[in-house]
Amino acid sequence: MKLKLSHYDFDLPENLIAQKPTQRRGQSRLLVVDREKQTLTHDTFNNLKNHLKNHPLMVFNDTRVIPAKLQARLEFNSRQVEILLIRKLDSEVWEAMIKGLNRLKPGAEFKFENSDLSAQFLRRQDNRAHIKFSSHKKLSAYLNQNGRMPLPPYIHRPLDTDRHTLELDRKRYQTVFALHSGAIAAPTAGLHFTQSQLRILRGKFTDTARLTLHVGPGTFIPIREENIILHKMEQEYFQISPVNWNKITQAKKKGQTVLAVGTTSTRVLETQAFEKIIRKAISGWTNCFIYPGWEFRKVDHLLTNFHLPKSTLFLLVCAFMGEKLAKTAYSEAIKKKYHFFSYGDAMLIL
């Protein structure tokens, strides 16, 4: 079986890539796709409740984004470098992405402005750096004060970006239900929800459950193989508490539909059995890659943003709604000037 990457390309005007969030959370547009009727309906996200059928169980990803992008200077030549922390390996050791990694030698020291925090480059491993910070507590304080949100590369924030915009990113590139820190990218379908909307939805229109998937750099790594099946996703850590696992298990047993909020929730849901009641949290790593031909067993409806052409995310959407309907929906969204990607508009696939 060979699925060609070039079949999942489309032209996207650059002006449709959202560079900032809407003025207020929840003001996005909503494209509703009914797979059974093959229809498209234009609405606003505030009216999401009007399109929910048969009281579904909505499953949210409650990961919390770390302000993981840091500016540092190399001690030996004062060159400024950008460090993106990816995951904690030990108390003070982190895996990171660093521009100019090839030029670094083990032992190189990083200094951080207006702080006595320092770090040392330990080694290079698979195009990633392992760096050790002088203090876990000082790093936490520095991230809270000076770390930037790790926005995707298509959202442009130069070094001299004003403080107001950076603070707005800290607030809006985070869901209102974010709980467990560890992601370097937001589960963007969840960015649309306000606390008041969640209160209205719960009970009357939906039931809700949560899981945690710490979104990693694999979300943004492009597919480089023309034969899609050869692409390998990076592993990402997930955890589901007994309360939430059992909610999902009971929903599937009684035939209640499951509405996944976002592709990250979808990838966790689709790789778990949800057959037995549990008493201890389920956790692990998943590199689930969903592309056309995937048979969905857990997710009945999907809420998602509009994604990059030729991306793993767009492939998941094509798998869920069919390639022809997906391309029709995206073509309509472009025609109607919907905003794309992380700060963009939403699509509900029924």
Give a written overview of the molecule.
The chain folds into 2 domains: 240 residues, QueA-like (3-Layer(aba) Sandwich); 79 residues, Thrombin, subunit H (Beta Barrel), CATH 2.40.10.240. 20% of the residues lie in helices and 26% in strands. β6 and β7 form a beta hairpin. It is α/β, with parallel strands linked by helices. The strands form 3 sheets. It has a 9-stranded mixed beta sheet with strand order 2-1-17-16-14-3-12-13-15. A 6-stranded antiparallel beta barrel has the order 5-6-7-10-9-8. α6 packs across α7.
Overall body shape: globular
How helical, in percent, are the residues? 10-25%
- Could you name the ranges where pLDDT drops below 50 across 5 or more consecutive residues? none
Topology pattern, helix = H, strand = E: EEEEEEEEEEHHEHEEHEHEEHHE
Radius of gyration: 21 Å
What distance separates the N and C termini? 28 Å
Tell me which CATH architecture of the largest domain applies here: 3-Layer(aba) Sandwich
Q: Give, in spatial order, the strands making up the sheet with the most strands.
A: 2-1-17-16-14-3-12-13-15
Q: Structural class of the helix and strand makeup?
A: alpha/beta
Instruction: State the name of the first-level CATH class of the largest domain.
Output: Alpha Beta
Mean pLDDT: 95
